Amino acid sequence: MKQSLLDRRLLFVTGKGGVGKSTIASALGLLGARHGRRTLVCEFDAKGNLADFFSIGETGFDPVEVQPNLHVMSMDTEQSLNEYLKLQMKLPRIARVGPLARSLDFVANAAPGVKEIVTVGKVVYEVRERHFDLVVVDASASGHIVGQLSAPQAIGELVQVGLVREQTHWIADMLADPQTTGVVIATLAEEMPVSETLELTERLRAETQVDVAAVAVNRVLPELFTHAEQEIYEKLRVDDATERLEQAVGGSVQPVYDAAELAVTLRRTRAEHLTRLREGLPRDLPVVYVPELFTRTHGVRATHQVADALADELGT
Amino acid sequence: MSLVTDAPVAGAEHTAGGLEQLLAAKEIVISCGSGGVGKTTTAAAAGAMAAAHLGGKVLVLTVDPAKRLANALGLERFGNVETRISTEAFQDAGVEPRGELWAAMLDTKQSWDDLIRLHAPDAQTREAILANPLYQNITGKFVQSHDYIAMERLYEIHASGRYDLIVVDTPPTRNAIDFLEAPGRMADFFSSRLLRWLTVPYRSKVVNFASKPFYTMADRILGSQFLEDIAEFFLLFQTMYEGFIERSQAVERTLEDRGTTFVVISTLESAPAAEAEFFIDALAERKFHLGGLVLNKVLPGFLLDKGAAEVAERLCRDGSELAAAIGDGAGPPDALARVLTEIGESFLNFRVVAAREAEMMAGLAERPEVVVAAPYMESDIHDLAGLLRLGEHVW
């Protein structure tokens, strides 16, 4: 039996650009908070649009509480490096200012893995110190996540001695523990997102120690008709029934038919991709479906709606 | 005939012009935008249209194509090598092409290795760099290295004069403007003072007093082997310093050239649209040429019809009454009423999205001179005919 998604303490939500990674991450965060867990949602890419999902102003490196139990922050590599040097390396303050610090920044940028360590290390640290019960990371897009999550291991291999090497151990250990950490891949029922999800699942399993916890399919179109209804609809479209309907409503129903056709067409192509997704994924990997909400609203209201849908799916 | 692709799009009144003129006038067209908006497909469609109708030699340089797209172009092996799409493939799609369509994919690692081979002063340096663990890590995993190498490859191909037009899609960057700054950053990287600093102990036996604490500390943090790797890497790279700087400046000039234009690709969802807006600003700030805006997956315009909305509302509200009026020819009244309600609701649902997106389009369309919209395609594009069909919408 797989560990339930929300029982973990660190979730990385990734996925191809444009599939609604931030939506899923925010909604998971809301769910965590609703369950009374002290929750942090952390945005890795400093695009700053996580704030939109909670209808708050710009977020920064210091977490802000946006509602009871729910905190939000944005990753900042430089600030994180400084904090890291202070807390982990116990570097004297003198080393953290002036030219020496600038040089270190440079090393962090140039040396592979250091940047990844300070970002991934930061969220793992928050979990380890039990500052939060649940940390949800709105992580990097699928192209970068493998590199990020394998960095502690990679740098451990590259750097044979020294403090960095010691530091990478506990990060790697916590990432590798499926009771603690899981990756959620957000996707859409479309060709490219499904293909990338299948590839990413394999790569994460092959190249990192991190457990893939679930795949979340965003914006799934509901089935418009049952089979019986589909038959009625087909009959309705023959001329005289439509004529009588148009007389009764006093207008053309063609655009409504066209929209129904659009819904059916979109649903049908997407259903094929969903099948390909389910069949291509390991059997024991849970797939959760978030319906298309056709929502008029944005921001925190829409996030709540997605959280409701996720709660139904997760049975929580 | 398909209602999805042939009906006019919602917000069509905000569109203006097409890409034909741009593709005829420019030598480099760079498509950019956030992930998942159809950048690669749009670039390929534009390239295919240019080859078909404008003639000349056209190259589509792509970073990350769907495998099926590569197959569709008839390229089983779609690597760093430029490959021609056959005339027969066009003929199969019902078009007699005036020019040639070529395609190539960016292989980051391969391109870096080529670049090292180009710049390395001698065979020994070359082999030492290619074998350096840090180099392998940087080229393989460093995200920013993709940005630079994409622009570098573009420069190289353009400078070779092999093509009349190069259409390129940009790597999926964290930040849409990263690749614009990649050449500049690369130059900074090689001219940095730290680079010289780091290599001091390996260049001279005398480490001066001022820099000693730095090495002590760096050693404590990173370990000396790693430091040595870094130093070796930088020392080797220094031999190529001049070449790299010159090259990255040339790459930057190419982006600013009048023959180069940027086309921003987006859908009308809020996140990609916000990024498109940001990108339009970033281009203007850097004085790069904004050629146009392509909006993909736009819903059909009939959804915004007012009369149709009233009809849909009545279907939702008076399903039973209307079912009775139709009679039982189509099915049991209850079920018929349910169907009427469902199609009414479905219309109104899509209408909400279409209305929001039309509003979004009006905002985005304010600045670019060329704004084109492509409808939802009923299936994914995986052949040349599909690319050309999409191409017709943006032409």
Write up this protein.
The complex is a heterodimer of chains A (about 325) and B (about 400). Chain A has about 325 residues and is an alpha/beta fold. Chain A has a single domain, classed as Rossmann fold. Chain A is built from twelve helices and eight strands. Chain A has an eight-stranded mixed beta sheet with strand order 3-4-2-5-1-6-7-8, sandwiched between helices. In chain A, strand 6 (about 180-190), helix 8 and strand 7 form a beta-alpha-beta unit. The model of chain A has no long low-confidence stretch (mean pLDDT about 85). With about 400 residues, chain B is α/β, with parallel strands linked by helices. Chain B folds into two domains: about 5-300 and about 360-395, Rossmann fold, CATH 3.40.50.300; about 305-355. Chain B has 19 helices and eight strands. The two termini of chain B are about 20 Å apart. The chains are: A alpha/beta (about 325), B alpha/beta (about 400). The interface between A and B is large, with 79 and 88 residues.
Structure keywords:
heterodimer; A: 316 residues; alpha/beta; Rossmann fold; 8 strands; 53% helix; elongated; B: 395 residues
